[in-house]
Amino acid sequence: MTVTDVEVGLSKTEVAEEQIKVEEKQRVLGVLPNFYVSYIPDAAPLSSKQKFKLAGKTVVDPFTFVFVGGAAGVEQAQNHFREYGQGAQGYGKRFGAGYADMVAGTFIGSAILPSLLKQDPRYFYKGTGSKPSRFLYAIGNSVICKGDNGRWQANYSNVLGSLAAGGISNLYYPAQDRDRAGLTFENGAIGVGASAVANLVQEFLIRKLTPKLPNNAPGKP
C-alpha cells in the first residue's frame, strides 16, 4: 500500500491577503492610517486587485477627509489659490482640489502604475543596522522599490506617479496658479521629496507609535 502525503498551502495571493488584513489595522496612535508600510521583510507581493483595494481604502478613510479638510483650511486662511475666493464656496473648491490631488496621487502612484510595472507600493521597514544605513535606506526608497519579483528596482511608480498627479492638477487649479510643465515638475518633485520625508518618519518614529504589528516584525519582542 502506497501512502502519498499532500501538502496544502496558501497561494501568494492568499498569503498577501492575510498580511494586508494586518496592515489595514495599523494606525498611528490608534487613529492615523498606516496602511502602506510592511513590517514583514519578505511579505508576499500584492496582486493588482489588492493594490487597488488598498488605494481605495486609503482614499475613503475618515482621517483622509480630516487631513484634506485641515489643509484646505490652512490654504484658505493664507488665501492660497485666491481665485477660489473665500467663504464656504472657496473652502469647498480648495477641499475638492486637495482631495483630487490625493486621490490621483494614491491611485496612480500606488495602484495603476504599480500594477502595470509590477512594483510594490509599500515601504518595507528596515529596523536593523546603523542609523546612517537606515537613513540612507529610507531616503533611497523614494526612488527605489521592491518589484513583485522581490528584487529592488527603480521606483518608476512613485516618480512617474508624482509627475502624472502634478500634470493632472493643471486641469482644475486656478489659471493664475497653473504653470503647465513648471507646476507639473514642481508637484512631482514635492511628491518624491514628501515620500523621502515620510519614509524617514516611518523608519525612525512611526513603528513606536503603531500598536498593532505582525508577530515577526523586526525588533518586536
Describe the structure.
This protein has one domain (12-209). The strands form 3 sheets. The protein has a two-stranded antiparallel sheet with strand order 1-2. Strands 3-4 form a two-stranded parallel sheet. It has 7 helices and 6 strands. α3 (62-77) crosses α4. With 221 residues, it is mainly alpha-helical. It is 56% helix and 6% strand.
Question: What is the structure about, briefly put?
Answer:
The protein has 221 residues and is mainly alpha-helical. It has helices at residues 12-23, 48-59, 62-77, 87-117, 131-140, 156-169, 181-209; strands spanning 27-28, 32-33, 37-38, 123-124, 144-146, 152-154.
Explain the layout of strands and helices.
Layout: H1 12-23, E1 27-28, E2 32-33, E3 37-38, H2 48-59, H3 62-77, H4 87-117, E4 123-124, H5 131-140, E5 144-146, E6 152-154, H6 156-169, H7 181-209
Parallel strand pairs: 3-4
Antiparallel strand pairs: 1-2, 5-6
Helix pairs in contact: 2-4, 3-4, 4-6, 5-7, 6-7
Features:
single chain; 221 residues; mainly alpha; 56% helix; disordered N terminus
Helix content: 55-70%
H/E order of the elements? Answer: HEEEHHHEHEEHH
Average pLDDT value?
86
Counted up, domains total 1
Strands side by side in the biggest sheet: 1-2
- Any low-confidence stretches, pLDDT <50, length ≥5? 1-7
